[in-house]
Amino acid sequence: MLTQLRIRDFAIVAALELELATGMTAVTGETGAGKSILVDAIGLLLGDRADSATIRQGAERTDISAVFDLERLPAARAWLAERDLDVERECHLRRVIASNGRSRNYINGVPQPAQALRELGERLVDIHGQHEHQSLLRRDSQRQLLDDHAGIQSLAAETAHCFHNWSRLRRELHDLRQASSERDARIDILRHHLRELAALNLSEGEVAELESDQRRLANASQLLETGQHLLATLTDGEGDAISDRLNQSLRDLDLLHRLDTRLGPVSELLNAALIQIQEASGELRGYVQDFDLDPAHLARVEQRLTAAHQLARKHRAAAEDLPALRARFEQELDALEHSETRLESLQHAVDDALTEYQNRAGQLSERRSAAARDLDERISRALADLGMPGGRFAIVLEPLDKATAGGLENVEFQVSANPGQPLRPLAKVASGGELSRISLAIQVIAARAARIPTLIFDEVDTGIGGGVAEVVGLQLRTLGQDRQVLCVTHLPQVAAQAHQQLKVEKQTDGESTHTQVLPLTAEERVTEIARMLGGLELTVNTLAHAREMVAKAAVIESN
Prior knowledge:
The strands form three sheets. The protein has a six-stranded antiparallel sheet. It is 55% helix and 19% strand. It is of the alpha/beta class. α5 (153-181) packs antiparallel against α13. The protein is built from 18 helices and 15 strands. The mean pLDDT is 85.
């Protein structure tokens, strides 16, 4: 539900802030006052094309924002959640249009493209009389409304699930058959690759070990010569080896320690150093004694590394990845060698999934057909009450050549606005007034099933008057009992039925013009409706008539 609307520097509105309520709200005012400005502003906020011409004269930008209560809007909450856009009780929209025509758009404070506003807007508001936001013109919305009216939402969801399962299995079967057509050639290639990999028989991590061996063997002379020199430095020589020097130092320190016991820690450290050097010498001696200088070993290592890199280049892989590649080829070969069995079982699964889909879709078609007949009769009767005598409404279920997630038929709303005219798709109804009244009839009949709680009717009463206007007002008020209805009207019979009323006034000081929108008190409503009844000169009779109309609407609702 739309709870707040703020407009700044839009058209001839300098600044406007409105708190909107549930029920039916009538928007009235003199001809030319700009009654549709609210609708236009909301349309911009919901993604209509931005135009710098909408900026108020002398201003740099237009700024429009709104707050929506999401309690009754699960589809909008789900849309926001999918995009990680703060899903709370309220949703804040804002659009700023600059003088260069560019716009900045925000959803819950996060910058978004205009397309995002349009997508979310379709889940927040239906604007009737303006094609851009009228969900009833879309076939998917028509199908959804029919399913909601029939109470078959779960059956429709099951049908869609069965379709997607069947489609997935068909794709798997197609891919497997395509693979099977090349099966023999692929098996031969895999077996050849596996023979080469098996001949090399490279183990996991072996390449790293071979590279380490190659580096060591290729530098054997340097390693051995340097190792022997280090060993001599540590242990050998005639009194100048490190171990000899440490031993002499320890003997000298022992004499000093007898004279001063504070040298004890120094003696312990030197002892520890001597032990470390002796251990290092032992390790180094073993390394030198066991060192492999076999040139043949180096040749074997280099030969194996060369073979590994050559085979890796053939498969466009790293040498260390060859063991994993071998395992992958083995798995693919096993799958191909058993593909005939898989093909047979997958074909059975596809057949079973198709049967399940056809059963669900068949039930869906039957339920839709029955619900369509009921809606046809009820909406056709409502059209006559709304000033379209002889008008006919029909829901056409057109069988499809192929299965879809939505079922076995297209759902299309068709209407004939006048006697003798053929039925035409609702989207092709030319008259905005007729389209608004047709939409009103549909919405009133399907109110319980409808998903969008905020409806805006722009000039829904165009071309009607008298008793029909009163019926339109009654229908809108009835719709407002469960929904939020905003209706721009010039008829007192419609305005009198509203739960609350807004008056649009255009004021000028001779140099500039601006429009303001004022919520009316009960007495101000009577005065405004009297003006709509009798013009600028208010009489006792028109005021009494206006008061009677407002009172009558409240009495009818209470009964």
